Amino acid sequence: MAFAIGDTVQPINGGPVMKVVKVTKDAVYCALKDNALESAKPFKPQELSLYKEDGDFGVC
């Protein structure tokens, strides 16, 4: 799967929801709350999936 900067992702095996801040040929760099490249950690693309919230949260 191809990821883009700004995508919301989560590790396939579970973990925090993160934002993609950089994408290279071999790695997807993800950051937690601050979305800062300095705090980003690299993941292999196959370790991540796009995050999607399920259910109705009362938003009209």
Q: How does the SSE layout of this entry go?
A:
Blueprint: E1 8-11, E2 18-23, E3 28-31, E4 41-43, E5 48-50
Antiparallel strand pairs: 1-2, 1-5, 2-3, 3-4
Quick overview:
The chain is an all-beta fold and 60 residues long. 0% of the residues lie in helices and 33% in strands.
Cα-based radius of gyration, to the nearest Å: 12 Å
How much strand content do the residues show?
25-35%
Share of helical residues: under 10%
- Termini separation: 31 Å
> What spatial order of strands do you see in the largest sheet?
4-3-2-1-5
Derived structural class: mainly beta
Query: Which spans of ≥5 residues are poorly predicted at pLDDT below 50?
Result: none
String of helices and strands: EEEEE
Q: Please count the beta strands (DSSP E, at least 2 residues each).
A: 5
Helix count, DSSP H or I runs of 4 or more residues:
0
> What is the 3D shape?
globular
Major sheet size, sense and barrel closure:
5 strands, antiparallel
The overall average pLDDT, rounded, is 88
Give an account of the 3D structure:
The protein has 60 residues and is an all-beta fold. It has a domain at 1-34. 0% of the residues lie in helices and 33% in strands. The protein contains no helices and 5 strands. The protein has a 5-stranded antiparallel beta sheet with strand order 4-3-2-1-5, with no helix packed on it. It starts with 7 loop residues before the first strand and ends in a 10-residue tail after the last strand. The model has no long low-confidence stretch (mean pLDDT 88).
Key features of this structure:
globular, mainly beta, 33% strand, five-stranded antiparallel sheet, 60 residues
